[in-house]
Protein: Isocitrate dehydrogenase kinase/phosphatase
Organism: Ottowia thiooxydans
Amino acid sequence: MPAIVLDSPSARDIAQAMVDGFNRHYRLFRTESARAKHRFETCDWHGQQRAQRERIEFYDLRVRECQRRLEREFKAGEQPMATWQQVKLHYIGMLVSHKQPELAETFFNSVTTKILHRSYFHNDFIFVRPAISTEYMETDDPKAKTTYQAFYPEQHRLEDTVRAVFDFLGLRVVFEDAQRDARYVATALRRELGDSRPRPNFQIQVLSSLFYRNKGAYLVGKVINGFREIPFALPILHRQPGTVFIDAALFGEEDLLLLFSFSRAYFMVDMEIPSAYVQFLRSLMPRKPRAEIYNALGLAKQGKNLFYRDLLWHLRHSSDKFRIAPGIRGMVMLVFDLPSFPYVFKIIKDFYPPPKETTREQVRGKYKLVKHHDRVGRMADTMEFSLLAFPRERFEDALITEIEKYVPSQLEISDRDGDGQTEVIIAHAYIERRMIPLNLYLQEAIESSTKDPAAAAQLEHAVLEYGNAIKDLVAANIFPGDMLWKNFGVTRHGKVVFYDYDEIEYVTDCNFRRVPQARSEEDEMSGEIWYSVAKGDVFPETFGPFLLGHPKVREAFMRHHADLLEADFWQRSKERIQRGEVIDVYPYGIHRRFDVNEGAWGASELADPAAASAETPADQPDMSAPMTPGEPSE
């Protein structure tokens, strides 16, 4: 490629305008994230939830602002290709000492792709790969906190070090009993360390900013001792306004993967250098893709950008083909996957068989609702893409036939870029983590030998988790609508997560009724509905025939979740939400809480293993412990 002469009088000004646009975005994003600390201190739970929803829109608003400015001041869409090449080079130079260069590069891509024709979307005009390294970045302000802080304890005085960590947080609240909580945490840490004696590098590293989500704040860090590194998180909750306590100690990668799950709302964290936070979190969860960590921090556009890079990289180094996803075919969404890639691709169909009555716009509205809602660990996050292009040879013919039959409006097969390669171009799709469909998971357990203890445990777990998932959704003001097993999935952690959103409604928009008493024997024996049903009416008593056909499934369901078949349960939940109550759902098992046996989890008397592993709604408290507020439905 020949050398580029920087001779355009407007290229530098365009680049500076784009940097200014990004800086405005991140300043507002960071300010809103930093305010989460005050909202936590003052117990402004509804304000916290509102801010989490509104922050999601910040990025697109700033991109549109920047696009309009470039069109207004520079007629950006009319600039020649040579000018845009220079704009990118000037932009790179402006990011050399920037504290969020990777985010600024993504912002550049977002703005330019709104201005330029699709034929420009290649290395010369957008950032396909990062141009600026984010390694070893740290704040230049000597008065500011560094990304993380190290503490060096003596093992027999761990409590004192834990107290020092509490003080480091700078919360303007009072600890209910800081000495007690420090003792709980130190005791839990000694259990994790076991017989390991302190090594010369024995230290505790904690991220300088707390992670806020709804009613919870989380201290995140790791313990280093010799060659061992133990990730941990300490949930901080309010017992009463202005008084906080440490609710639990979560240790290990698995606990943190659940806390930072793709089925939870985004955290609010005050970060000057987000890449440094991502690098630290990646050291705690090395199996979690960087894309998902950026998502968890609320930087969804950066997460989406990294995900797409990962997808392209995977396609380059694999040879299997996209196929129709296993499981029961959906009525509204066409779902396909790549066996070697742990995600599914979902396209809204062009038409739906009866009794479905919906439109593409309504379905997209439901997915947007979930994106902005507290997902309570029970709804999968989705990434929305337009104009996804893949090599034609990577698609099975059966899948192409399926798309042509059900979604012709969203399919183009052509050499659109003029590079001699035929591509499959999907106009609009959602992408989400792949899970085992719950109906297949349950069927596997049913078909196994009745004398197989593992199969019996799998069935019990599936039914228990299914009911817990519904109750958590209800706590978050979500009525799933279509509650069939096929609309739920099982994650690799054994959690049941809902992923079919085309019929969801707010609980507060539903009218939960009992089935009226039959007027006559003819009514009772009739196969038709003989009572009036208005829009929004839901009859929980009628769920059973659709869900509980197998006797073993029914037995397990009635043992754990019979209340889901009663209108009273749903109506009580609705009334609590209408009163403004934020219902609590803990993102960890009740057996991990210090209020329960001082967090000495594993004691057989606490709960059966399946129940202990599940999140526990406040509707079902452990009666051996006092009720305390936790993190609410997300």
Notes: The first strand starts at residue 148 and ends at 151.
